[in-house]
Amino acid sequence: MNHEKRTLEFHVLAVFFALFVLFLYGPLSAILILSFQGENGGLTFPLNGVSLHWFANLFERQAVGDFGGSFKRSLVLGVMVMVVTVVVSLLAGLAFRRKFRGATALFYLAVASLVVPSIIISLGIGVVFQQIGFRPAWYTSAFGAHLTWTLPFGVLIMFAVFNRFSPAYEEAARDLGASSWQTFAHVVLPMIAPSLIGVGLFGFTLSYDEFARTLMTSGTFNTLPLEIYGMTTNVTTPVLYALGTVTTVFSFLVILLTLGAILYVGRRRARV
């Protein structure tokens, strides 16, 4: 009886998981297929031939806007946000390992932006920049707006990491004569490196596809999410699907590279 019950539960969970995967990747597969629509094809099935025409047309600025420029801006902005998120989150995690006055208030202040609507933060930062005489731009005001989104997550992750980190490793290194810097560089940093890589990936992906906090802060030039939104209002060809395919493949490549980096660090640490 118990065996039959477990079997039934397994099948129910399997069906639920299959429906979830279908709901998650079904639209992506439709976009992927339609991006190879023939030159005379439209936005819906059936396919009118198969070609790479819309991928080539994607990089023609007069046809779909400044896709190349918006992609470069989002890439550079994502890397900037990633670096700052990793550094600040690491420093915050190290600082909060020691109790100090005002730590609780500082913690809630750091994560407060998570409960504020993103569009309000975007509007507020854009207004402040205009009031102080600075023109909003993707590398200044949008950069700051993205950090209000990525830093709280990075800090929370590092808090969890250091909460489980045993100080015994550091004490052993100091007993062997290592300085504070040597202990950090050769003991602490290698042990938390996979978590830092994860924080970096998290910061990059949150920035790369952020729309609401970029809307009022990007200035004259669009980032990729804003460019895609603009395309949905004036593009009526499968080139939009080609853009979706390219950006999805790029996102998966970033994830695979990150996983590769984590595995490399883990194997290198195991050898040591």
UniProtKB/TrEMBL annotation:
Q: Which keywords, in A-to-Z order, does the entry hold?
A: Cell membrane, Membrane, Transmembrane, Transmembrane helix, Transport
GO cellular component terms listed in the entry, alphabetical order: plasma membrane
Q: Which domain of life is it from?
A: Bacteria
Sections of the chain in a coiled coil:
none
How does this protein lie in the membrane? Answer: Multi-pass membrane protein
Keyword flag Kinase: no
Subcellular location(s) of the protein: Cell membrane
GO terms for biological process, alphabetical: transmembrane transport
One Pfam family recorded for the sequence: BPD_transp_1
InterPro entries annotated for this entry? Bact_Polyamine_Transport, MetI-like, MetI-like_sf
Q: Where are the transmembrane segments?
A: 12-36, 75-94, 106-132, 138-162, 183-206, 239-265
Residue span(s) of domain ABC transmembrane type-1 = 71-258
Q: Which family does it belong to?
A: Belongs to the binding-protein-dependent transport system permease family. CysTW subfamily.
The name of this protein is ABC transporter, permease protein
Species per Swiss-Prot/TrEMBL record: Mesorhizobium amorphae CCNWGS0123
